[in-house]
Design brief:
- The protein is globular and about 60 Å long.
- Helices cover about 40% and strands about 15% of the residues.
- Helix 1 crosses helix 3 and helix 9 packs across helix 13.
- The chain has 13 helices and 15 strands.
- It has one domain: NAD(P)-binding Rossmann-like Domain (Rossmann fold, 3-Layer(aba) Sandwich).
């Protein structure tokens, strides 16, 4: 076993290491949010598969299912393991902490660390469900990856964060310097759009459900949920109306098709949940979005309605995914837990701040400090209660 003092090492919006004790404390904090706010009589799904379970909304979903409903959870993710002085990725340490907490609290949990896009890993998951869990009653699809290898064609696709149709120029924050700058994004080619849809669209979600249905591994009435984001007009040119938006449109089309298929086959349903903007390594890399999130944090905190990933998943699971609860959807059939973010008063205030914010007044008008701290916390750094001057075990294994 290897103990070392771990200090954060970052390059812009990329953190190249992680702190296991900080990741474990983050996990315990999430558990506390769920257990402290769990309705006394609530019940929910008991066998839950989370595809993309090691960070962000996927991890928070797994926590909500396990500590909210006492569910058995099978988590699927792709994370780097520790190697010598090199730490594991944060998602790996999050999952180690999840397993330790689940064992302590008497909850069944298993994880698969590998390529979730592959047929091999789907086979492994099916075997665990068949032999150790029983039919799945909730599938969460929260996979985020910049690349995808198609096991059927052998082709590898790469996503692109670009506008569609026109060159886009807008404000953003340089996360390294904290400067408010302008960024110009060239429009995507048709091939870049198609590849982004192949990576971030709904095809692999459909293949997971196909696998489970074909092997009779979904319980009667089983539901599946994928996550998306819409956001305000400030972000639409690079998000909703860009390559990511094209992929998210495909996710919604997949949801509609899966909903019909699950309804006819097992009385089940498929949904897309529109979640609030939060700090992730992916969102930090999208031009314009970090500035918007900084303003959003300031406004929502001032109004007392700010939420992180676990607070969002607490609402999704307790208010929409509990037993005998029919999810509330909008006119498009979407679950909207971004409702507080998209309140008229919140968005009006951000719209008024947007043209005024500069490098000089960023600290006054926006919560850039909160964004940076949230970014560090993703990797287990700047977490309250953790002494970063003490050596920590970095070679913990699942």
């Amino acid at each position: 076993m290897s103990q070392q003092i771990v200090k954060q090492r970052s390059r812009g919006f990329i953190c190249v290491n992680a702190h296991p004790a900080g990741c474990a404390k983050n996990l315990e904090d999430q558990i506390a949010v769920i257990t402290a706010n769990r309705p006394a009589s609530i019940d929910g799904p008991k066998n839950v598969l989370v595809v993309g379970s090691s960070t962000g909304y996927g991890l928070a979903s797994r926590v909500a299912a396990a500590w909210g409903f006492g569910a058995k959870t099978l988590g699927v993710f792709f994370e780097k393991v520790p190697e010598g002085k090199r730490t594991a990725t944060a998602g790996y340490y999050n999952s180690v902490a999840f397993h330790r907490a689940a064992e302590r609290d008497g909850l069944w949990a298993k994880s698969l660390n590998g390529d979730a896009f592959s047929d091999e890993l789907k086979d492994q998951a099916a075997n665990i469900i068949r032999d150790e869990m029983g039919p799945i009653d909730l599938v969460i699809y929260s996979l985020a990856s910049p690349k995808r290898s198609d096991p059927r064609s052998g082709q590898t696709f790469s996503s692109a964060l670009k506008s569609i149709g026109e060159t886009y120029t807008g404000k953003t924050i340089d996360l390294g310097s904290g400067a408010v700058t302008e960024v110009t994004v060239e429009p995507a080619s048709p091939d870049e759009i198609a590849q982004t849809v192949a990576v971030m669209g709904g095809e692999d979600w459909q293949w997971w459900i196909d696998k489970l249905l074909s092997e009779d591994l979904l319980a009667a009435g089983a539901r599946t949920v994928a996550y998306t984001y819409i956001g305000p007009r400030h972000t639409w040119p690079i998000y909703r109306d860009g390559t990511i938006g094209a992929a998210k449109d495909h996710v919604k089309q997949t949801s509609d098709a899966l909903n019909e298929r699950l309804r006819d086959a097992i009385g089940g349903a498929a949904y897309v949940s529109v979640n609030k903007a939060v700090v992730t390594q992916a969102s930090a890399a999208i031009p314009v979005v970090p500035l918007y999130i900084s303003l959003l944090f300031r406004v929502m905190k001032q109004k007392g309605i700010h939420e992180g990933t676990i607070e969002q998943m607490r609402r999704l699971f307790f208010e929409h995914l509990a037993a005998d609860v029919e999810p509330t959807v909008d006119a498009s059939g979407l679950i909207r837990i971004d409702d507080w973010e998209m309140r008229d008063d919140v968005q009006q205030e951000i719209a008024e701040l947007w043209p005024r914010v500069t490098t000089e007044n960023l600290g006054e008008l926006a919560d850039f400090a909160g964004l940076k701290r949230n970014f560090s916390r993703l990797f287990g750094f700047e977490v309250d209660g953790v002494d970063y001057d003490l050596p920590v075990e970095t070679e913990s294994l699942l």
